[in-house]
Amino acid sequence: VQLQASGGGLVQTGASLRLSCAASGRTFSGYVVAWFRQAPGNEREFVAAISGGGGVADYADSVKGRFTIARDNAKNTVYLQMNSLKPEDTAAYYCAAKRGIYYPPKSSYEYWGQGTQVTVSS
Question: N or C: which end of the chain has fewer CB within 10 A?
């Protein structure tokens, strides 16, 4: 599967953005999809994950209550709705996918898209 992330931009603190991860392939519902982010000088960190059917999702503690992951399998797309953005959310955001088993949601991803930059100004 090939992944294409989009939707990043420069926003002010408190603003919202919606990232999209568009996937190729006919069996998208068979893939667990996650978002990760990496800021300069930092390690890549897990943000959120969603199961193939969309019924299970997990979030990093730092984004719980502000970010929502969702998917539309008919459109082969996963979304990350980001609200109440903070300067510490500034990073390149990557979507990733893996086949089959959801757990553990933070690791074992096989496919990665290119990053989309999110910059939150204070």
Answer: C
